[in-house]
Design brief:
The complex is a heterodimer of chains A (about 240) and B (about 240). By secondary structure, chain A is an all-alpha fold. In chain A, about 80% of the residues lie in helices and about 0% in strands. Classes of the chains: A mainly alpha (about 240), B mainly alpha (about 240).
Chain lengths: ~240, ~240
């Protein structure tokens, strides 16, 4: 059993590249849902009402304190046990592991990003919020127009490294029968007993995806971080968050 | 072990032949063992990596950079599979070639798990330890040099005690991460907490209950680790005045 470059390039890599959209689908959907859910999680966590902050605290603790793989199994096998056969019959798409993977990845991201966003909301300069109040904005409007956009900009670097973590975490979906990049590589490995070609092929594809995602996130950070760029004609380094 | 349908689920958590508590306890012990051994391997590699990255030799810098960049870009699960399937067979070949082992040598999943986790966390710890060393005031090292201390003595007396304080928060985070990532090694057949939970869940078909129990034991491990690490951090900072 040797590393066969021709086999890897001609057979394994095309199959893995065909699986990239599945990985990106997992990343995109759970990234959007997870980050959107992170906002109410962070707001509830910061609330003074124990009925709001206690559940949020518990949720964040659960998501951050237990392994994602356990969460994935709990969602996949647990929901499979709870959902009645009639429901499964009515919604045939529920047999597909990808929905459970998206669900698990989304709530996990919501927990991690929720905690990051909480810190960022606290870091929004108080004067800006007071100014918005003085303008007569309602509490919701202040949050929507001032606090949230400022908080997102503050935690953007942390959030983007969280997205890289999420891209890597999508590989766990292979354990619940989703044929994303790692799942496909594993399937070829089991079929052909080729260890090096398949797993190294997957490594190449993941390095490529991480590289491209990093570039994309850097571009977004630059586009959204206009306030941190030095003024034209100055050489001052942008202030750190 | 047979669970009657009318029995309470909690009876499944009895100790011994009638319940799964002893399996969970065994799994927890192995999770802690795998994490601890992996962490120690990671610390060793992290020290070497930090040394390489801070070295004055360009080639060592490049090796350190390549190590951390590649490990950070790859999913942990893929790395574990890669080290288990590809790494161990390569290692066996090297050992056989060197005449140190026979063809029948089998690397146990435990060893593979520890080396895989150690290799991954070595990369993360490299940057944390490097940051800790870089945070030390240059004058301290220069002063030690002026006293005529050699490299090893300087490291033991000046660098190590000071860098630990800077590195502890990052090191604590990586400990919490490694205890959670150790669940991934159940995929390569190493027995740990998640394997115990899966055994109970598939045998009884009570997935929700037993995976929740697994999650709770992991949470217990995380929370008790956090308490312990907070204590260690306070102790490491005992000589520093809080502003």
């Amino acid at each position: 059993m040797k590393l066969d470059f021709a086999y890897m390039v001609m057979t394994v890599l095309p199959a893995l590249i065909l699986a990239v959209p599945t990985s990106l689908l997992l990343l995109g959907t759970s990234g959007i849902i997870g980050n959107a859910l992170a906002v109410p999680v962070a707001v509830a966590r910061l609330s003074r009402n124990p009925l709001l902050w206690m559940p949020a605290y518990l949720f964040i603790l659960l998501m951050r304190g237990t392994p994602l793989l356990v969460q994935m199994y709990l969602v996949y096998y647990g929901l499979g046990q709870v959902l009645s056969p009639a429901t499964m019959h009515a919604f045939p798409f529920l047999r597909d592991g990808i929905w459970y993977a998206i669900f698990a990845l989304s709530i996990n991201t919501a927990g991690y990003t929720g905690e990051i966003l909480r810190g960022a909301i606290l870091a929004v300069p108080h004067g800006e919020i007071e100014a918005a109040r003085a303008f007569g904005m309602s509490r919701f409007l202040v949050f929507w127009r001032i606090t949230l956009p400022r908080a997102i900009r503050i935690c953007l670097p942390t959030m983007s490294s969280e997205m890289i973590v999420l891209l890597k975490a999508t590989s766990l979906a292979s354990t619940v029968t989703v044929y994303e990049v790692l799942g496909t590589a594993q399937a070829i490995r089991v079929d052909t007993f080729r260890v090096y070609d398949t797993l190294l092929g997957a490594a190449i594809v993941y390095i490529g995806m991480v590289f491209l995602l990093t570039r994309l996130l850097n571009w977004i950070e630059r586009a959204l971080g206009k306030d941190r760029r030095p003024l034209p004609g100055t050489t001052a380094r942008p202030a750190k968050a | 072990m047979a669970i009657q349908p009318d029995q309470s689920l909690w009876l499944g958590l009895a100790w011994g032949d009638t319940g799964w508590a002893d399996e969970f306890a065994h799994g927890l012990v192995l999770t802690i063992e795998i994490s601890l051994c992996g962490y120690l391997v990671g610390l060793t590699l992290g020290m070497l990596g930090a040394g390489a990255k801070l070295s004055l030799h360009k080639s060592l810098n490049r090796i350190g950079d390549a190590y951390t960049t590649i490990i950070r870009a790859l999913p942990e699960l893929l790395l574990i599979l890669l080290i288990y399937y590809a790494g161990t067979s390569a290692l066996v070949k090297i050992l056989v070639f060197a005449g140190l082992a026979s063809e029948e040598l089998q690397i146990s999943p435990f060893t593979a798990a520890v080396s895989a986790l150690g290799f991954i966390y070595g990369a993360y710890l490299t940057d944390i330890l490097r940051g800790g060393i870089e945070a030390i005031h240059r004058g301290q090292i220069e002063a030690a040099r002026a006293f005529g201390m050699g490299g090893l003595l300087r490291f033991r007396r000046i660098i190590l005690p000071q860098m630990i304080r800077y590195a502890i928060p990052g090191m604590a985070n990586q400990w919490l991460n490694i205890t959670k990532d150790s669940s991934l090694v159940s995929v390569i057949g190493a027995y740990e907490l998640l394997s115990a939970g899966r055994g109970a869940a598939t045998a009884t078909k009570q997935y929700v209950f037993y995976y929740s129990v697994t999650a709770m034991v992991f949470l217990l491990l995380s929370v008790s680790s956090m308490v312990l690490l907070g204590f260690i951090e306070r102790r490491a900072n005992r000589g520093v005045r809080r502003v």
